[in-house]
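Board notes (copied after class):
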Amino acid sequence: MKRVLVVTLPERGHYHPLLGPAEELTRRGAEVAFACTCDISAELAEAGVQRVITPPGASPPSAGLRGAALARVLSDAAALRRWIRELLIEVPAQNVEPLRAIVRDFRPDVVAIDTMAYDAAIAAELEGVPWVGWATSLNPVLPQALDSELLATLRALDSSRHALFGDWGLAARFRGSDVLSPRGTAVFATRALVGSPPSGVCLVGPSLGGRRGDSDVDLTFAEGRPLVYASFGSQAWYQPGRFERIIEAARAADVALFAAMGDLADDFQGRGLPPRVRLVPFAPQLQVLARAHVAISHGGANSVMEGLAAGVPLLISPICNDQPHNLHFVSAAGAGLGMDLDACSVAELAAALHQLAGDGPWRAAARRIAASYASRDGSQGAADLVEQAA
């Protein structure tokens, strides 16, 4: 194997888990390039990626759909369904030919794709290049009986998804929002969280390597108190009501709070914060989780993976899409709780933080999963899958 093309979506939660496997393949002697239909060259360069290929004229991801604008879409069921259709059907249909050109030019031996990049799967098949899936979600291991708003939306889109492939003379197999490779799909988890995988899906363990550009963080303010870390990810951070409730619950519970709030951090700074509260736009998450006693999250796949790898009990309040699926797995494993942060009281949240911060069953379950994660390097497992497909 000489060359590997890694096709990612432009969001941090999608490309972060792919960095470690790409770095591992480079260490093994492969020439690795990332490809994306949006120009995220600067972000990937900061993460240590040396070669990024984009179609001619590619532009950065739209800055218009972020913050309050994105929050409005996520809270509007009809708007969210339209957005999902755009991401999974309309945009990929436009990007097949640009990605085919990238594959022809780079001439990879294998293409490794984010399993939501349908256009990349089509492009690789049409160019006769084997491809494997690197899932940035837990969709490939969803129980058949599970249901959610996302899965209902996907059922409505099922004929369109199959037509997207069928228009090129191809067939596809889906699980949740992910397309599964006939040569194998890697999921960055273990049986301790998700149980036995379906055929063709490989549980490779967490992918935590390859991070670059994280600054050191001072957590001395939390000494003597349990540390609660709160973040709703790099996209869905505009949750002012939730953060207000979290801050007040931290005050009531007498715990330290470190919150990554995007642009909201500056807005909250002059509000008479408790002394053991620190608010930042974005955080070096792995460093903070290494010290945290509890992590509050929307249940994004990356946040769940990193929190459990650190052995931290999770309090999950899903916002959209696959996040309820991730809560399902965490709850079933006993490693955390679900709570509606838009409706709960401050007292209810403070009580939940007390429960999770102690040495109770949630911490024991999180540590059990962390031990299983420590025994499996997802970067190596995902790289192995690529080598097997070459």
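Comment from the instructor: The mean pLDDT is 96. The longest helix spans residues 77-106.
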